[in-house]
Structure formats: C-alpha cells, structure tokens
Request: fold
Amino acid sequence: MSAVMHFGEMGSRWGFNRTVGQILALIVLNDKPISAQEIADTLSISRGNTSMGLKELQSWRLVKLHIIPGERKEFFVAAGDIWTLANRVLEERKKREIDPTLSLLRDLLLDSPSTDKDKLAQDKLCEIHDLLESVTRWSEELQRMGPDKLLTLMKLGAGVGKVLEFKDKLKIGNK
Amino acid sequence: MSAVMHFGEMGSRWGFNRTVGQILALIVLNDKPISAQEIADTLSISRGNTSMGLKELQSWRLVKLHIIPGERKEFFVAAGDIWTLANRVLEERKKREIDPTLSLLRDLLLDSPSTDKDKLAQDKLCEIHDLLESVTRWSEELQRMGPDKLLTLMKLGAGVGKVLEFKDKLKIGNK
DNA sequence: CTAAACTTTCACTAATTTCTGAAACTTCAA
DNA sequence: TTGAAGTTTCAGAAATTAGTGAAAGTTTAG
Reply:
C-alpha cells in the first residue's frame, strides 16, 4: 500500500498538489468508502489539511460524499469510474487553463491597434484565439459523443484519415 | 503593448511561470528577433532571470536562437507558427505529465498483489494505465496525420460519428 | 594574447504555496 | 438544553519556488 501511496505523488503533475493527489489515490483505490479521519491518519497529515483537500477534490467533482445510515461520520467515495474521473480532470483543467486565456484574448482583441507593430501582434493573438476556440469546440463535440463511440474512434486511430478520404471520394462520385 | 504583456501572465496557466510566459509572449508577438537584454529591459527583470527563462523556453522548443550576421548579441525568435507552438506545448506537457505517470503505473503493476484489497487496487491502476496509454497512442496517431487532415477532422466535428456509422453499414453490406 | 561584449551560474533573498493545529462552528442523541 | 462527535476556518509556520545580481565563463575583434 505504501507503494500505492507513492502514486499520489503523481497527482502533483495533474493540477493539484501532492497531498490532494494522495487523498484522491486513497479514495479511488479503496473499494470501501473512507472517512476524513482515516485519510488524515493514513497519510499522516493534519485534519485541517484533509478537510481542505477533500473540499478541493469535491470542487473538481472527483470525489463525493457518501453517507452511511446510522453513522455519524461523513465518508467519501470516487465520483465515478476511471473514465468519468479522467473526463472531469480534463473539463476542470480546461475551465482553469483555457477559458481564462480565451476570455483574456477576446478582451485584448477588442481595442483596435494603434501602431503597425500592434497590428501584427493582434493578428497573432487572433490566430491563437481561433485555434484555441476550434480545439475546445471540437473537444466538446467529441465529449458529447459519449464514451462508446469515442472508443471506436480511438481504436480506429489514424485510420480515420482513410475513412475521410473514402467519404470524399463517394461524394465526388455521386455528383 | 502593456496590455499585451498582460497576456504573458496567462503563461502561468500553461506550464511555466509568469515571467517565462511574458518572455514567450514578447518573442512571439514581436515580428523582429529580440535580444536577451531587450527582453530584460522591457519586462524589468534581471538579466540572470532572463537567461534562465530563455533556456527553459528553448528546452520546451518554443523559442530558438537567431544569429544576425555581424551582430555580437544573440537574438531570439519563435520556433514556428502558432500551430507548431501549440503542438510543442502539448508534446512537452505530455512528456512531463503523462509519461512519468505511465512509467510509475507500469512499475506498480509489476509486483503482484498480496491481499485481496491490493488486488482490487491494482485492477484500478491497470484501468488507469490502459486508458492513459490508449489516449496517448491516439494523440500520437492524430499528430502524425498532419495539420491539414486534422483541420478537416475538427471541422467535421461530431459528424465523425456519422461517418463511422456509415462505414459500419458498408462493411456489413459487403459481407 | 587581451579586453570588450556578451552569457551563464549560483548563493542568497523574496514571494508564494502548502500545512498545521487550535478555536469556532454544526449536528444530533439523550 | 447540553455535550459528544464530528467538520470547517484561518492565522501563522514551514516548505517550496521564483528572482536578483555579482562573479565566473565565453567568444571574438584587434
């Protein structure tokens, strides 16, 4: 299990800090719901820190409260299967990283450039904005597609390229 | 321009710190190559910090040296167009975030579980590993496809789903 | 070879982030 | 209503990360 805790360390690479990562690992890898106190004890961190960490994980929608009837304590479980969790991480990171960037870009694009140099710079900004927007739109569409189809698509891999060509040919042929 | 510098702040959301982000913004938005000294002056940061930042940006392959004949100083320019830069950021982040996670997972999956509880945990780890691996393989394949096709694919959006169905029908029909 | 014009390194300081633990708060059984 | 069992908050300590600037290192024209 100590080796397993080591995995939590990796969480620091995924948008939250080490402790929060360890808390998440503990919850995900436990089949049974686990209490805040148990988490604090297992990881040897303060009760306060644990509370903060759990709050953060809930704000990421990775962990949810699980009330056991008759028990006074609050227990926690993962908010879904691995696929769901991965999706949530992606969504939240998009919200924290891409969305603010997009909104800043839009702001910057509002005021018109005074100098020639500024004109050039704005063109670049616009390019970045458009790229970012296309990508987010695409990812949203893919997500809406549901896991099953996405899996097919992924299995297909670069083969998608082939399918595209094929489709084009048909279109031309039919005209 | 000061408003434009503000954009660099956003860099902190993208894997490097504020200053490095500002340096990158400055380089990308300047059409002309720019010297380390100029960067330090414009951003009011120390020469040492500038040097470190440039080194980091070069390690991310976002910025490259541009030697002007007859000049003693070293100048810097963006390592490519926006698309290239975005790709590089993605690649480098994958290298820094996903690859170490994958290698840790592989290590953890090597030793066989002693208890029943450990067995359960390992199953989860394996699931995570497989998901991560599929996704990276897919992204590599997409990348190898080149920007042009990728753009088509993105434009198609959720429509890919339709194409997939279509293809399936054909296969069945041919059998 | 030397000195001017640069760049890089690194020990130290500054700023930021994370963690603790005691105090305040909440809930509920008796 | 009380107090036991629990949770949350928050001021400040500890740890980490970023930034400075002086000294050491490089490169090249002369």
Observations:
- Residues 36-37, 47-48, 51-52, 55, 72-74 of chain A lie near DNA strand D (CB under 10 Å from a C1').
- Strands of chain A lie at 34-35, 63-66, 75-78.
- The radius of gyration of chain A is 23 Å.
- Chain A touches chain B through 54 residues (CB under 8 Å).
